[in-house]
Amino acid sequence: MSIYIPQSLREQIRAADRQRCCYCLTTEANSGIPMTFDHILPVSKGGETSFENLCLACRSCNEFKSDITEAADPVTDEIVPLYNPRTERWTEHFYWSEDGTKIEAKTAIARVTIFTLRMNNSVIKAARLRWTIALWHPPSDIS
């Protein structure tokens, strides 16, 4: 199902999200694949097409997220909400591995999000390695 997103809203989101996935922080330039617009709370679950409910997502994160908003924590088995990039700070939940190729969890929300969205799959880790080598370090301008 395709939802109409006005051009002005698309531009606002692209600028706010700095042309990168709000979940795994991959950029279009790094992945070579255009970003998608993710409804944080899916339309099928009552989510609106608004700035507060939309974010950029790479195709991988968007497809694995689908209409999921919560999942079982792989450590505690408790149901935990996925990370919400509009209401939470990435650095409060996630951090980079020493080599900059793997996203690590600080919280249950991060564990669930990393697991559900498969944020450390081999393809994206290889892209991050290229990115880290090119930049000499993972991104530090995360909010």
Question: What is the topological layout?
Answer:
Blueprint: H1 7-16, H2 28-31, E1 36-39, E2 54-57, H3 59-65, E3 70-72, E4 79-81, H4 90-93, E5 94-96, E6 103-105, H5 108-117, H6 122-135
Antiparallel strand pairs: 1-2, 3-4, 5-6
Poorly predicted residue ranges: none
Main sheet: which strands, in order across? 1-2
Number of domains: 1
General shape = globular
Question: How are helices and strands ordered from N to C?
Answer: HHEEHEEHEEHH
Mind summarizing the main beta sheet? 2 strands, antiparallel
| Helical content band | 25-40%
Number of helices: 6
Number of strand segments: 6
In percent terms, what proportion of residues is strand? 5-15%
**What integer is the average pLDDT?**
90
Between the first and last Cα atoms, what is the distance in angstroms? 31 Å
Given helix and strand content, the structural type is alpha+beta
Query: Whole-number radius of gyration?
Result: 15 Å
